[in-house]
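Input (structure):
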């Protein structure tokens, strides 16, 4: 499987939250430098789902991220490390974001207000 197809298959498995598929893919083809972050997201799910082989792959991923040493790799390695119980609880949290609204804010548009806000004439 070439690296583009590998990343696509891994991305799909991570998106579905399919821990067994993530572990299977990583056992068969591994993760290249460009897919380590994606592999980490998938392995966190796989460890939570108690998929056989996931903890070992997650430990290998932590080592690979720390060895790679790119900006942010230590923070990324902290997430699976914390999930395994061998590191401090990671401070990074997933947050739901409306990408269109974020793009607008970055382009200088005011944020959209949502919720039960009602204007009343006085």
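Output (sequence):
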């Amino acid at each position: 499987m070439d690296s583009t197809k590998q990343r696509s298959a891994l991305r799909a498995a991570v998106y579905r939250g399919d821990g067994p598929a993530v572990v299977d893919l990583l056992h068969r083809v591994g993760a290249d430098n460009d897919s380590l972050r994606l592999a980490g997201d998938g392995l966190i799910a796989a460890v939570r789902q108690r998929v056989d082989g996931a903890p070992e792959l997650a430990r290998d991923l932590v080592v690979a991220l720390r060895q790679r040493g790119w900006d942010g790799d230590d923070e990324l390695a902290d997430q699976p490390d914390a999930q395994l119980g061998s590191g401090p609880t990671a401070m990074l949290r997933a947050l739901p974001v409306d990408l269109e609204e974020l793009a607008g804010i970055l382009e200088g548009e005011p944020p959209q207000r949502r919720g039960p806000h009602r204007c009343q004439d006085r």
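Notes: Residues 3-94 form one domain. DSSP finds six helices and no strands in the chain.
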